[in-house]
Amino acid sequence: MSSSDKKMRQFSFIVILGFLQERHCIQLLRTTFDSTPANVTVIAGKNAILPCTVQNKGDYQVIWMNTNKVLISTEDRRVIDDVRMSIERPFVKDWNLYIRNVELKDRGTYTCQVNTNPIQIKRIYLNILVPATIIEKTSSPNIIVVDEGETVQMMCNATGFPEPSVTWFRRTKQQAKEYIGTKGEMLIIHNISRHCVGVYECVVDNGLADPVSKDIIVDVEFAPEVELRTSRIGQYRGLETILECIVSASPQAISLWMKGDNQVFNHSTNWKYRTDIYKENEHTLALYLRILNLEEDDYGLYTCMSSNRLGHDSKDVLLYEYLDPTTRGPFRTKVTEINEKITSGIHGVYNKIKLKDKEFEYQTTYKSYNVRQGHNKKPYAVYNTGYAGTGDLYNNGVSLCREEIFVAQLLVYFVTGFIQLSLGR
């Protein structure tokens, strides 16, 4: 072997020895790994960073595994088929797991491992918070229609983490919001009535964001109910009158007026009747029948009828000819002047009385006055237009107030006594 070959071998040996010594020195530096457990809390939809720090890693490898012990990455290369995950290294010592747009299913314990001997492991618990939401598909529809007396179930299916609370309220037509006092996803109303109609609101909250709510309109249907202001009404002939009934129903009923077996129609060819409908509230209508120029045939029994798919109801109104108690006519007016006093003898007294701007005569006698049993016959006097009530006194068809009779009788007695005294002399 030549001297040059020997020198070349010596140089190679020195280089290899130096390399081995350098590698041994590097390996002698201690690998530092932060294995302290950690908790990371993130709201769903945000990004999460799971920390892992390794100093003097050397030839060791860093791997990440998910909650199901599935390999996520080796070194900085992603293995799992989830593009949301990657290894982020803002510094040489950092081997952080970065998860974008976290979901509730991402919750759990992740591990960062270094394959030293023994293996060093750092556990990071990822806690996902989910704001409260309402699942429409499994909740009640926005409108519920039921028959009166049924049982109603309202569902407000809520989700979130931590578990949200569900509170129920009811809003009336006056928009007043009242607390029902029931908590939970389901609200049950047994034997529901029309008074339970309204908007029911469920409010869902778990403190992470603004509460969310859902409105459920409850409409209760029931058979018609007919009510009357009065069951009897009187009116004079030639005048008009109005019959009224109140109909409560849901859904709105078909309502009409009947006289006997005939329906009372309101159209252009029938001038006698006019019908009007006014809405008093959501389920109540006022039905009016106006009858013009009353005649004898118009008096009788009228029926207010109403019906819907749940049933029907009716009430009768009696329209009768009104004849008020005996009109005492001008005798009830204060007498302002008596122009002529007694002008005849014992058997009769004529009085002429001026009442305001009218002047007329009436005759009185001291004979017994007939007591007219009222409501049997109309008086004949022109000023008496109604029936006489029982106990009114009549003479020759003229009704006299007791006050005027008493005055007339006093005058008769006075004249009679005066004449008898004169004859006695």
From TrEMBL:
UniProt keyword terms in alphabetical order: Disulfide bond, Immunoglobulin domain, Repeat, Signal
The keyword Cell division belongs to this UniProt entry's keyword annotation: no
Domain called Ig-like: residue spans: 31-122, 131-213, 224-318
An example Gene Ontology CC term for this record: neuron projection
Lineage top rank: taxon: Eukaryota
Stored PANTHER family: CTX-RELATED TYPE I TRANSMEMBRANE PROTEIN (PTHR12231), DPR-INTERACTING PROTEIN ETA, ISOFORM B-RELATED (PTHR12231:SF253)
Name listed for the protein in its UniProt record: Ig-like domain-containing protein
Organism: Potamilus streckersoni
